[in-house]
């Protein structure tokens, strides 16, 4: 006997003919048809490898969506609405860090059974990853070279390269609000990387020494540090998983593999926000 689904909940919608469905809204027919392992015969663990990287790209799409909104808000002098956006990005990053643990279950022996099907394909070629780096401030036009075969991808990267980073926008905000951000920092061409400047450290020292007076700027500083820290954790986890799975072999895209990733771990987007901590001193009580 088949029970009537209506007995589960009298309000349950049964007839979905010509109506929006869960599958239709999420386009699951398209999404779930996009996992096509290439190993022949199919290797069980290739599905893990494909889904791991596809979900990473989905999360990165959301990071880009949020970053663009944050950039607009800062340019409009609206820091407070940015705080939720940047907190959301931090939590997305935490998801990305955590999911490396799933890929770490892939053993070297298993990966070698299908690594050859990747050819020169590599995460180094991720357009979205590179756009995130550009919008956070790691501007390096050389990274666009591998996308010459896709004019559409190249255009996206060049647009991100020419967009002020979130750090650029924040420093410009501080300058508009009376902080002595050095003019040479503000005038730097946005397609070039920011370099640490003692004058910016002094600006942040002013903010950190009186957080009550400069609360919104202070909170923004800490939100940016959250994102920078999470990015470093992601890079570190990436490096260790690669080392665990392929050792010191070269990456499929031709990078030095672990050596290249180890160097990336040391990069930071907002250097003065880290340096200022060294210069802070406790406030003595007023007598």
Task: Describe the protein.
There is one protein chain. Helix content is 57%, strand content 0%. Helix 3 runs parallel beside helix 7 (127-136) and helix 12 packs antiparallel against helix 13 (258-265). The radius of gyration is 23 Å and the shape is globular. It is mainly α and 287 residues long. It is built from 14 helices and no strands. The model has no long low-confidence stretch (mean pLDDT 94).
* Arithmetic mean of pLDDT: 94
Determine the structural class based on helices, strands and strand pairing: mainly alpha
Tally of helical segments: 14
Which strand-content bin applies to the residues?
under 5%
Helix percent band: 55-70%
Radius of gyration: 23 Å
Low-confidence stretches: none
Order of helices and strands: HHHHHHHHHHHHHH
Largest sheet: none
Gap between N and C termini = 84 Å
What spatial form do the alpha-carbon principal axes imply?
A: globular
The count of strands amounts to 0
Give a quick precis of the structure.
By secondary structure, the protein is mainly α. 57% of the residues lie in helices and 0% in strands. The chain is globular.
Task: Quickly list its features.
mainly alpha, 287 residues
Protein topology:
Layout: H1 22-26, H2 28-31, H3 46-75, H4 80-98, H5 100-103, H6 108-112, H7 127-136, H8 151-161, H9 166-176, H10 183-186, H11 198-209, H12 215-246, H13 258-265, H14 271-279
Helix pairs in contact: 3-4, 3-7, 3-9, 4-12, 7-8, 11-14, 12-13
């Amino acid at each position: 006997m088949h029970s009537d689904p209506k007995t589960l909940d009298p309000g349950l919608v049964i007839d979905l003919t010509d109506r929006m469905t869960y599958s239709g809204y999420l386009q699951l027919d398209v999404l779930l048809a996009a996992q096509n392992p290439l190993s022949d015969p199919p290797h069980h663990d290739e599905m893990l490898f494909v889904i791991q990287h596809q979900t990473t790209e989905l999360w990165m799409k959301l990071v880009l969506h949020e970053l663009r909104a944050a950039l607009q808000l800062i340019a409009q002098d609206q820091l407070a609405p940015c705080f939720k956006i940047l907190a959301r990005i931090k939590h997305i990053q935490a998801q990305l860090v955590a999911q490396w643990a799933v890929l770490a279950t892939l053993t070297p022996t298993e990966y070698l059974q299908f690594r050859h099907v990747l050819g020169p394909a590599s995460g180094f070629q991720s357009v979205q990853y590179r756009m995130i780096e550009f919008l956070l401030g790691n501007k390096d036009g050389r990274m666009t070279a591998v996308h010459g075969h896709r004019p559409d991808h190249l255009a996206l990267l060049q647009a991100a390269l020419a967009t002020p980073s979130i750090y650029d926008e924040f420093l410009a905000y501080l300058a508009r609000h009376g902080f002595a951000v050095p003019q040479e920092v503000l005038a730097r061409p946005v397609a070039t990387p920011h370099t640490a400047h003692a004058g910016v450290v002094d600006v942040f020292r002013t903010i950190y020494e009186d957080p009550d007076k400069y609360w919104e700027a202070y909170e923004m500083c800490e939100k940016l540090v959250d994102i920078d820290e999470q990015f470093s954790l992601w890079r570190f986890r990436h490096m260790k998983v690669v080392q665990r799975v392929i050792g010191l072999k070269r990456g499929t895209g031709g990078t030095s593999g672990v050596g290249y990733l180890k160097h990336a771990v040391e990069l930071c987007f907002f250097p003065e926000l880290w340096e200022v901590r060294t210069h802070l001193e406790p406030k003595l009580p007023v007598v």
